């Protein structure tokens, strides 16, 4: 059957052109015609027609069946319509169509052309009731801020889940798109007083940023937007006229970025030039802006603060300068006081305006954050100083004492602390930046003629690659996108993605991963996954989501943050009041009061010191920064940890349940022996067995099919006889009717359940195979046991050593498998596991996990790789999926071991323990700092030692505490896996890392 090429209405890509052809009017392709009697499979149909969709319309004005008939006939005349049913009684039309040829709007317009008012019923058409939105939030300073935003989001109807992370300054919101839009979420965040910037509005769509040069008037903007919106597959367009930037969200399986560039450049008769917007990662650029902001603010504050410091604390002890500063201008007001007032005012109100706006936003929503403490402390010092100098200016005898240096130095030190903090926080997410840098900047796009010859090569930005593009990969170059090889042979180094150190051989038909390195040979690959769908993007998204997810231990800090700032304000006021009253009623000797101040000013300094030394930031950053670094370190080592919950659970694990096939064993079983109990040609025997097993996804079934191919060496891809009434009995085997013969392939239990007797000879063969750690598969034909197939799946190198190391870490190991008892016991004995459960169905594995949790109180980790492991992975406290396993297992797991080796089970547990050790240390420092610092700032040591903490020193200590917590988390980047793994002996060979 000839393969037809189709175009969607507008400018979908044609393989023989770079950007695709543009049609000035909507172009409706005709449906393909098949020869009579030719059947087309569902997959073929999907690849030819496109995605099948359903739409329901409300049709008003129909009065009889003739009306309904005319509507139905009009719809069916459209290309791509599979089925159309019009219900005249309920005034509805249901249409099933292929989205490549037609869309909802075209169908709606067709019905209206017949003469009936029509609207799309989105509630019945759109089955998606959940969408994920990621938003960057600017201006959060402590846990109180993030808690305020999170609480506000959770109160919005339609929000299903909201997480706000202080460390990443992002929110991840799961919401019902039928009730809410992302713009409403942005407004809700901005209503809490913070700036909100949209990052993404769904996991199922791609996004590209384009810069447009040329005449950019309102009319030109409208023209460009209209041209783009006419394209099929466009989901959203956002235009920034100032930056000349277009943000386009689209469906990558329908259209791509090169189409957009072509449309834009052809829209204005050559006036416009479009390109990828020249900016780095949004998060990184935002971080750089924040770092630069704090750096500039700190430097400007120094310009004013240093003279204030010198006039108040240095020049006063230099005789000539002191006399000049003490010259009176008005009454008792001196030149030095005027200078300090003038210099500190810009620091307080211009450079420090951020603290005022932050305080206002927090207080407006009934919460208090770090900005409130800083604003109160600096205002107390500044306005008392203003009062003091104004009184001196109006009194011939009042000698003022100002604290202008306190307010300006406080703000300067806090800005320095924030600058160092954002610098350090930027380093916590370096793992994501490194992952994103794996993708090459450019790619070589190939174009072919009808005979398949290359007619053109073009170097394009790798972000412009579209699905089904053919890309040339030269030796030493990075693979530009996910795809499969259509020409050439080579070896590809996939260590940066999978952790597999040895280059993997690639030839026609093999898949390749974007970001990996082509070692030798030229490859032509066809792109299958681009943009956010690529494996690299999925890993980045997984790590980003992990860094967003809060660990349960963080809830403790969140609860404290609600009361922390109000409590500190009360303590600060109480401290001032206690010292003031003590001084007024002479409760302590007047000799305690320094000569330059009075008792009121001494009390005020103690109160301000208490207010500014308290640090809610250190508490808020203790957990998320450690989780960010820990998950980043794990990702760089091929251990993908899905968030704080998984980290916290993993460090408590004291029992691990291993699956056998593909986990403890290599997962590539091979047939090693065949025993027949009846005279039969081996080729005929395997013909029947392979015909039954080819429908199964089980590794043992695949091994049998591969072995059966040896009897059909004359055929490259043998076609097996058709299996009728096929049934897969999970965990036991399969049965089918082939050539009118009832064939059952499976374990002994399945045979007995089917009423098939197992002779003594077969039992002996099974026992012999089990002693050799082989799996015996029984085969019956027409209710008679015909033979036994022995399959061997060798144990993974190092499995015994890993089990031994886990034991030394006080972690028990258990084996649960669907295989027979003999083989399971043999494997368990080989690796050193004593507790075995065999012949277990998927639900049995999950039940075993629950039994260990409930009856024995164990914290259980399940390690598996298959679909049948998914229930147990979900049931376990921590599910660990082998990276080479199925997508379902990986989705169900909390931790993904990308390298597919068992050593990483130890790495995952050890890393989680080290990360939580660091979190405990951070909390110890954060709590210890506040518990020790606040009493000292309140003057606890003053009566006995005369030691007091000036407010500006207290402010510097507060800033240092946040920086120290972040730096403590950053030390996790130096993580080393357990030394025992560095010299692991595998099969007599010592492997050194």
UniProtKB/TrEMBL annotation:
Keywords tagged on the record: ATP-binding, Copper, Copper transport, Ion transport, Membrane, Metal-binding, Nucleotide-binding, Repeat, Translocase, Transmembrane, Transmembrane helix, Transport
Main localization (coarse): membrane
GO term, biological process aspect, one: copper ion homeostasis
Cell location: Membrane
Pfam annotation, one family: HMA
UniProt topology in membrane: Multi-pass membrane protein; Peripheral membrane protein
Gene3D superfamilies per UniProt: 3.30.70.100, Calcium-transporting ATPase, cytoplasmic domain N, Calcium-transporting ATPase, cytoplasmic transduction domain A, HAD superfamily/HAD-like
GO MF, any single term: ATP hydrolysis activity
Its EC number(s): 7.2.2.8
Catalytic reactions of this protein: Cu(+)(in) + ATP + H2O = Cu(+)(out) + ADP + phosphate + H(+)
Any Gene Ontology CC annotation: membrane
Family the UniProt entry places it in: Belongs to the cation transport ATPase (P-type) (TC 3.A.3) family. Type IB subfamily.
Alphabetical list of PANTHER family matching this protein: P-TYPE CATION-TRANSPORTING ATPASE
Protein name: P-type Cu(+) transporter
Gene this chain is encoded by: LOC107817495
């Amino acid at each position: 059957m000839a393969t037809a090429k189709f175009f969607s209405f507008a400018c979908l890509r044609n393989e023989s052109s770079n950007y695709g052809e543009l049609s000035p009017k909507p172009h409706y392709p005709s449906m393909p015609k098949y020869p009579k009697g030719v059947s087309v499979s569902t997959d073929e149909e999907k690849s030819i027609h496109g995605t099948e969709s359903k739409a329901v319309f409300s049709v008003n004005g129909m009065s009889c069946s003739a009306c309904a008939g005319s509507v139905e006939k009009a719809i069916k005349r459209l290309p791509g319509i599979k089925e159309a049913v019009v219900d005249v009684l309920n005034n509805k039309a249901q249409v099933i169509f292929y989205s490549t040829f037609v869309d909802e709007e075209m169908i709606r317009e067709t019905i209206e052309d017949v003469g009936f008012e029509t609207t799309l019923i989105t509630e019945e058409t759109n089955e998606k009731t959940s969408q994920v939105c990621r938003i960057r939030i600017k201006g959060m300073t402590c846990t109180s801020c993030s808690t305020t935003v999170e609480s506000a989001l959770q109160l919005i109807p339609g929000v299903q889940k909201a997480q706000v992370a202080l460390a990443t300054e992002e929110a991840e919101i799961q919401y019902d798109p039928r009730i809410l839009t992302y713009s409403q979420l942005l407004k809700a965040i901005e209503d809490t007083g913070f700036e909100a910037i949209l990052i993404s509005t769904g996991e199922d769509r791609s996004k590209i940023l384009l810069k447009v040069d040329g005449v950019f008037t309102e009319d030109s903007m409208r023209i460009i937007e209209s041209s783009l919106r006419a394209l099929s597959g466009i989901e959203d367009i956002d235009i920034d006229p100032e930056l000349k930037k277009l943000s386009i969200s689209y469906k990558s399986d329908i259209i791509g970025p090169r189409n957009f560039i072509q449309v834009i450049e052809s829209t204005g008769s050559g006036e416009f030039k479009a390109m990828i917007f020249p900016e780095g990662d949004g998060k990184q650029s935002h971080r750089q802006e924040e770092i630069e902001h704090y750096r500039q603010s700190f430097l400007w504050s120094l310009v004013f603060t240093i003279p204030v410091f010198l006039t108040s604390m240095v020049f006063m002890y230099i005789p000539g300068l002191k006399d000049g500063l003490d010259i009176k201008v008005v009454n008792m007001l001196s030149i030095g006081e005027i200078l300090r007032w003038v210099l500190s005012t810009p620091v307080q109100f211009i450079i420090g305006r951020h603290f005022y706006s932050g305080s206002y936003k927090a207080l407006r929503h009934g919460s208090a954050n770090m900005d409130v403490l800083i604003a109160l402390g600096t205002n107390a010092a500044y306005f008392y100083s203003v009062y003091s100098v104004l009184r001196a200016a109006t009194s011939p005898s009042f000698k003022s004492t100002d604290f202008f240096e306190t307010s300006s130095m406080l703000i300067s030190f806090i800005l320095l602390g924030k600058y160092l903090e954002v610098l350090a926080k930027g380093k916590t997410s370096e793992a994501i930046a490194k992952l994103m840098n794996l993708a090459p900047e450019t790619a070589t796009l190939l174009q072919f003629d009808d005979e398949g010859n290359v007619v053109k090569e073009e170097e394009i930005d790798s972000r412009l690659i579209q699905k089904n593009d053919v890309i040339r990969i030269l030796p030493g170059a990075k693979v530009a996108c996910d795809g499969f090889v259509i020409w050439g042979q080579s070896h590809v180094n996939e260590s940066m993605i999978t952790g597999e150190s040895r280059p993997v051989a690639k030839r026609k038909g093999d898949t390749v991963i974007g970001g990996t390195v082509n070692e030798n040979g030229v490859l032509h690959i066809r792109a299958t996954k681009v943009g956010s769908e690529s494996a690299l993007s999925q890993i980045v998204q997984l790590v980003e989501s992990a860094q967003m997810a809060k660990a349960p231990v963080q809830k403790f800090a969140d609860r404290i943050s609600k009361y922390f700032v109000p409590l500190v304000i009360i303590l600060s006021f109480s401290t001032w009041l206690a010292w003031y009253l003590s001084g007024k009623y002479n409760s302590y000797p007047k000799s305690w009061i320094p000569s330059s101040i009075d008792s009121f000013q001494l009390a005020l300094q103690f109160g301000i010191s208490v207010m500014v030394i308290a640090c809610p930031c250190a508490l808020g950053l203790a957990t998320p920064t450690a989780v960010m670094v820990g998950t980043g370190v794990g990702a760089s080592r091929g251990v993908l940890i899905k968030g704080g919950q998984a980290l916290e659970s993993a460090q408590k694990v004291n029992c691990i349940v291993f699956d056998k096939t593909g986990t403890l064993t290599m997962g590539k079983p091979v047939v090693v022996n065949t025993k027949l109990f009846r005279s039969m040609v081996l080729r005929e025997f395997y013909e029947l067995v392979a015909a039954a097993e080819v429908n199964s996804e089980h590794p043992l079934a695949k091994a049998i099919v591969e072995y059966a191919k040896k009897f059909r060496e004359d055929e490259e891809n043998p076609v097996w006889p058709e299996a009728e009434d096929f049934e897969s009995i999970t965990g036991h085997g399969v049965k089918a009717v082939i050539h009118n013969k009832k064939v059952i392939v499976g374990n002994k239990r399945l045979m007995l359940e089917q009423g098939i007797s197992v002779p003594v000879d077969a039992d002996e063969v099974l026992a012999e195979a089990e002693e050799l750690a082989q799996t015996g598969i029984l085969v019956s034909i027409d209710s008679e046991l015909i033979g036994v197939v022995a399959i061997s799946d060798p144990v993974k190198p190092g499995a015994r050593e890993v089990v031994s190391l886990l034991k030394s870490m006080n972690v028990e190991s258990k084996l649960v498998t669907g295989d027979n008892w003999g083989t399971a016991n043999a494997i368990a004995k080989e690796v050193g596991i004593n507790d075995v459960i065999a012949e277990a169905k998927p639900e049995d594995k999950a039940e075993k996990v629950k039994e260990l949790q409930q009856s024995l109180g164990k914290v259980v980790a399940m390690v598996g790789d298959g679909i049948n492991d998914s229930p147990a992975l979900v049931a376990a406290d921590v599910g660990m999926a082998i990276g080479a396993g199925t997508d379902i297992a990986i989705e169900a797991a909390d931790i993904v071991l990308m390298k597919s080796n068992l050593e990483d089970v130890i790495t995952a547990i050890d890393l989680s323990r080290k990360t939580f050790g660091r979190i405990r240390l951070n909390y110890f420092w954060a709590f210890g700092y506040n518990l020790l610092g606040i009493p000292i700032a309140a003057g606890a040591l003053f009566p006995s030692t005369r030691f007091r903490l000036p407010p500006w020193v207290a402010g510097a200590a507060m800033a240092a505490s946040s920086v120290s917590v972040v730096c403590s988390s950053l030390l996790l980047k130096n993580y080393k896996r357990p030394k025992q793994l560095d010299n692991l002996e595998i099969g007599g060979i010592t492997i050194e890392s």
